């Protein structure tokens, strides 16, 4: 109750920007702000001191103090998780093949059975598709409905741009880090270079995809893809050309949502179900979408559920079952005459592209609208409460969306993310129109609040998923900086090597690095720098005081 009250009070504080700057002109406000900051920094220092970390400096910046607190909180939660696993006999990463008991042994209790069920890995259904390497992302798009620029031309343009950028980028194919100044990848290919060369893997993946699209032949000829790093956004031209129609700009009488329990909801997990859903979506003037994602037990994460709502019904789409079977939805999602309503779509846009090959043209982001209007909060929970009187169930924010079947509470929570959103869209459009009228502007004016929301939404939908190569040096140094733990050069080298080991294993198992081994464990092992498997066991017992996970025991010789 205290946490809820504190959250509500914090949401009522002036937001950074004009409101905060105005309030800061009052001496009383500045004094209260300084006193509160000093008290908070003192509390943070107490937490750090309790865990044996270096206290905050008096001149520490707010961002650094916040990072230190978050990092320490993560460590304490990781330690609690490890201790709980050790007490209950669950070893880290037991969902892999390394286990303490035979794989065919029966669960010893209902709790063990539930835990075993929870550890099922949906990635096994599409294991051949998983690529955790740093090779560039290849779009899944195989057809391009509602195109202004045909798919072959948009891909060719993005390849050419990517080639130019790659050749100019430090460490790219045009740099000394990857080739000699006078050498290109064509020469590398001609010499019969190593097939595992990163640049050759990139070239092969891009050429294969371009060949599937008919851009080039499967052998020599066509554009030189060897110097390209990645494809761009296939719908970039369409999003750039989008302008909301008069109907999309017009303010109409708001249409109140139907009660959740009176609204039909379809669970879609078959291609036939997708066809039926698509038949309903075609012709709808606006639809609401959201994505539920899982990242804890996957290297890069994956989409688990796609929620879609119209004014008449809700759909819950099982993207674990239909991961490669939803491309037909682009017929509606890229139709500029259909408004796609999402809230805080930055991550959803990326997940839709990466996992499902889906793109949005004609996005209206209600989170962006809340920001333009200057609402006290742009969060979905606030917007639903403010416009609909709906209070989101916070306990399901961190639910495991891999679970099948969904519980009734999970299904209701997922539906709520989109069920009310079209009504929220109506209300926000009306508020934006009022704001424009106050300024003597029309919704179609380029400097209107309404146009600002559409422009911001378009910028969100133009995001393009790209893979950022892993940098063990940066990761190791960042962890050391946060920990503020002095180390010898030898221990620092050990720490970096542990990061490299953890990352490689996480990619191999498709597991998140923190679930392979938390960062604070790597720090403790690097401090001991054990040279043998026996020394590793001793170091673990001294530093962790919890049972060593089965995965670590199985790989002990690699760590020592």
Q: What is the helix tally? A: 25
For this entry, what is the oligomeric state of its chains?
A: single chain
Span of the ends, CA to CA: 47 Å
Biggest sheet architecture: 6 strands, mixed
Uncertain segments: 90-119, 165-194, 214-229
**What's the overall geometry?**
globular
**How many beta-strand runs?**
6
Task: Give a brief description.
By secondary structure, this protein is mainly alpha-helical. It contains 25 helices and 6 strands. The radius of gyration is 26 Å and the shape is globular.
Task: Note the topology.
Elements: H1 2-11, H2 18-23, H3 27-50, H4 62-88, H5 110-118, H6 151-168, H7 185-190, H8 198-212, H9 236-241, H10 246-249, E1 265-268, H11 271-281, E2 286-294, E3 302-309, E4 314-318, H12 330-333, E5 339-342, H13 346-356, E6 363-365, H14 366-373, H15 380-388, H16 408-419, H17 421-438, H18 449-461, H19 472-483, H20 489-509, H21 513-516, H22 519-528, H23 533-544, H24 550-554, H25 556-559
Parallel strand pairs: 1-4, 2-5, 5-6
Antiparallel strand pairs: 2-3, 3-4
Helix pairs in contact: 3-4, 14-17, 14-18, 15-17, 19-20, 20-22, 22-23
């Amino acid at each position: 109750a205290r946490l809820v009250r504190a959250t509500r009070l914090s949401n009522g504080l002036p937001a950074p920007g004009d409101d905060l700057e105005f309030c800061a002109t009052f001496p009383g406000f500045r004094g209260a702000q300084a006193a509160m900051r000093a008290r908070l920094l003192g509390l943070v220092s107490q937490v750090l001191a309790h865990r044996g970390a270096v206290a905050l400096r008096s001149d520490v910046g707010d961002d650094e103090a916040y990072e230190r607190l978050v990092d320490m909180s993560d460590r304490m939660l990781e330690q609690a998780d490890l201790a709980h696993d050790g007490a209950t006999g669950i070893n880290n990463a037991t969902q892999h093949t390394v286990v303490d008991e035979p794989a065919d042994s029966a669960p010893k209790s209902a709790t063990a059975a539930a835990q075993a069920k929870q550890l099922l890995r949906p990635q096994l259904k599409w294991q051949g598709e998983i690529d955790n390497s740093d090779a560039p992302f290849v779009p899944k798009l195989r057809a391009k409905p509602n195109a202004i620029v045909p798919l072959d031309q948009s891909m060719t343009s993005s390849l050419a741009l990517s080639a130019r950028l790659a050749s100019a980028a430090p460490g790219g194919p045009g740099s000394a880090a990857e080739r000699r100044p006078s050498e290109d990848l064509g020469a590398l290919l001609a010499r019969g270079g190593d097939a595992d060369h990163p640049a050759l893997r990139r070239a092969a993946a891009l050429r294969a995809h371009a060949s599937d699209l008919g851009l080039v032949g499967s052998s020599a000829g066509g554009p030189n893809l060897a110097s390209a790093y990645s494809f761009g956004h296939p719908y970039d031209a369409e999003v750039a050309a989008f302008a909301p129609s008069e109907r999309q700009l017009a303010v109409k009488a708001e249409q109140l949502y139907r009660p959740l329990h009176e609204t039909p909801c379809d669970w879609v997990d078959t291609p036939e179900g997708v066809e039926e859903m698509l038949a309903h979506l075609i012709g709808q003037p606006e639809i609401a979408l959201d994505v539920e994602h899982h990242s804890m037990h996957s290297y890069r994460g994956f989409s688990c559920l796609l929620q879609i709502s119209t004014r008449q019904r809700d759909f819950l789409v099982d993207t674990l079952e239909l991961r490669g079977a939803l491309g037909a939805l682009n017929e509606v999602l890229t139709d500029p005459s259909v408004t796609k309503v999402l809230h805080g779509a930055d991550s959803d846009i990326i997940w839709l592209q990466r996992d499902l090959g889906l793109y949005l043209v004609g996005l209206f982001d209600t989170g962006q609208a809340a920001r333009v209007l200057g609402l006290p909060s742009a969060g979905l929970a606030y917007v639903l409460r403010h416009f609909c009187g709906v209070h989101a169930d916070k306990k399901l924010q961190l639910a495991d969306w891999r679970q099948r079947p969904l519980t009734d509470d999970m299904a209701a929570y997922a539906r709520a993310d989109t069920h009310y959103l079209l009504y929220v869209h109506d209300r926000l459009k009306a508020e934006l129109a009022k704001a424009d009228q106050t300024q003597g502007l029309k919704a179609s004016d380029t400097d209107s609040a309404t146009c600002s929301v559409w422009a911001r939404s378009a910028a969100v939908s133009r995001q393009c998923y790209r893979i950022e190569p892993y940098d063990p040096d940066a990761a190791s140094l960042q962890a050391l900086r946060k920990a503020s733990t002095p180390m010898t050069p030898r221990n620092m080298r050990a720490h970096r090597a542990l990061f490299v080991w953890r990352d490689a294993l996480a990619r191999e198992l498709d597991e998140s690095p923190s679930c392979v081994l938390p960062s604070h464990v790597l720090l403790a092992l690097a401090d001991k720098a054990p040279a043998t498997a026996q020394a590793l066991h001793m170091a673990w017992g001294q530093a962790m005081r919890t049972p060593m996970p089965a995965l670590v025991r199985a790989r002990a010789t690699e760590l020592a």
